[in-house]
Write a structure and sequence with these properties.
Chain lengths: 118, 107
């Protein structure tokens, strides 16, 4: 059973760059799409963007100017960078795997709370 | 962008009740729709994909239906473990989007 684990700082200062990594274990990173999804405290879910194992990406236009997602297949990791953060970027950030037959998300990490505050 | 609207925002059914959630898309998404269950403090769990396909390991009391712009998730007989928030998500085109969620509260 594939497992995903987010890691990174839980506190980021305003205007700085949020950096998170998702490590995939128990399965292959190849042939799948991988996404980042976030959830502000007490609110709903927002898709941030995805990456294919080849490096192809697709970002939510609402964040596109600030988002970069990259992949390291040798380490079985993919990463999120979100620049120029504000308090509105405070959220639980999840990494997730796209299902093999659709773009539903069939495996999720446990999530990591990132707070933007000085 | 395609917007997803769920109704109602909260429900207070009793154990054993049949419960139905509604999700509407702002434009035709075919059957490119998923449903998730999220318990407090945990990640969402995939229940239904392609509008009506049951994800492996999900109890058969969960079912999904619909196509185009109107979709429903039904729990045939509510169990105590089902009190959670339920989200729909479209994957017709980028950007993917979720509904705002329907919360099941214990009556």
């Amino acid at each position: 059973q594939v497992q995903l684990q987010e890691s990174g700082p839980g506190l980021v200062k305003p205007s700085e760059t949020l950096s998170l990594t998702c490590t995939v274990s128990g399965g292959s990173i190849s042939t799948y799409y991988w996404s980042w999804i976030r959830q502000p405290p007490g609110k709903g879910l927002e898709w941030v963007g995805y990456i294919f194992y080849t490096g192809n990406t697709n970002y939510n236009p609402s964040l596109k100017s600030r988002v970069t997602i990259s992949v390291d297949t040798s380490e079985k990791q993919f990463s999120l960078k979100l620049s120029s953060v504000t308090a509105a970027d405070t959220a639980v950030y999840y990494c997730a795997r796209h299902s093999s037959h659709s773009s539903s998300f069939d495996n999720w990490g446990q999530g990591i709370l990132v707070t933007v505050s000085s | 962008d395609i917007q997803m609207t769920q109704s109602p925002s909260t429900l207070s059914p009793s154990v054993g009740d049949r419960v139905t959630f509604t999700c509407r898309a702002s434009q035709n998404i075919g059957t490119w729709l998923a449903w998730y269950q999220q318990r407090p403090g945990t990640a969402p769990k995939l229940l239904i994909y392609d509008a009506s396909s049951l994800q492996s390991g999900v109890p058969s009391r969960f079912s999904g239906s619909g196509s185009g712009t109107e979709f429903t998730l039904t729990i045939s007989s509510l169990q105590p473990d089902d009190f959670a928030t339920y989200y729909c998500q479209h994957y017709d085109s980028s950007p993917y989007a979720f509904g705002q969620g329907t919360k099941l509260e214990i009556k």
